[in-house]
Amino acid sequence: MIQICAIASGSNGNCYYIGNNSDAVLVDAGISRRQIIKRMKLMKLDIRKVKAAFITHEHADHMRGVRVLSDQHSIPIYFTKPTFKRARPADRPKNVEFFSPGDSVQIGEFTIHSFSKIHDAIDPVSFRVTINGKNIGILTDIGKPCNNVNEHLAGCDVAFLETNYDENLLWNGPYPYHLKTRVASDVGHLSNRQAAELVANIDSSKLKHIFLSHISADNNRIDFAMEAFNGLKKEINIIPTSRYEASVVLEI
Ligand SMILES: [Zn+2]
Ligand SMILES: [Zn+2]
Q: Which residues does 41 contact at the CB level (< 8 Å), separation at least 6?
């Protein structure tokens, strides 16, 4: 059995869990170690199973808990070299492994495929994790879809997919103008509409579950994100995530 959970998801902190009976990997650790452990315990997920964590890019909402988590639980952290160099020195763990975008890394029965994506970071990547013939994509912080994102998402059974903002809420919301344009730009984030279009534009016949991920507190509402996927809902199980607590643990 594979267990899949968003320990935290939102524009202020991201941490995603994929595990089987003996091992697990995390993608990003953008909330404190204490919060990660607390939330995992509540969901009956064991930190001792976590054999590695993979980092998508250097933004704080993906990095905040990395060093302490790694130091206290002896977890190796996988970075691209530019991302490691760009991370704040205080966030850099000692136990580091490097990969290049396009590499695949084997951790127990898990194969973690990395690929470049478009986002305003030094070397942004996303991941597709293969285990027991199933594929789980972690696709957040995407300015606009590219071939890599399209191809990897089409291979997924389960995806954490960014639905960062509702376009009306963003443009009529509290952000200063330069931030609004950054979020909506080609190197910012995917809106609800863009995410739903992305799924509609690929062969999604394998895709059974989507976690609506990296939702903005100021510029989105979970019901708006759900609504954007209405047309697809019959075939695909749409699962909400939260910045405040772990999502349900999906078992496949
Ligand atoms: Zn982010
Ligand atoms: Zn980011």
A: none
| 1 C-alpha to ligand 2 centroid (Å) | 31
What ligand has the least distance to the C-alpha of 214? 1
Whether residue 13 contacts residue 64, with contact meaning beta carbons closer than 8 Å, is answered with yes
The CA 119 to ligand 2 mean position distance, Å, reads 7
Q: How far is the CA of 171 from the centre of ligand 2 (A)?
A: 20
How many domains does the chain contain in total?
1
Mean pLDDT over each residue of the chain, to the nearest integer: 97
Question: What's the pLDDT at 14?
Answer: 98
CATH number of the domain that 247 lies in?
A: 3.60.15.10
For residues 190 and 57, give the distance between their C-alpha atoms in angstroms, rounded to a whole number.
16
For residue range 112-149, list pLDDT tens digits in order: 999 999 999 999 999 999 999 999 999 999 999 999 99
Residues with CB under 5 A from ligand 1 (ion): 61, 141
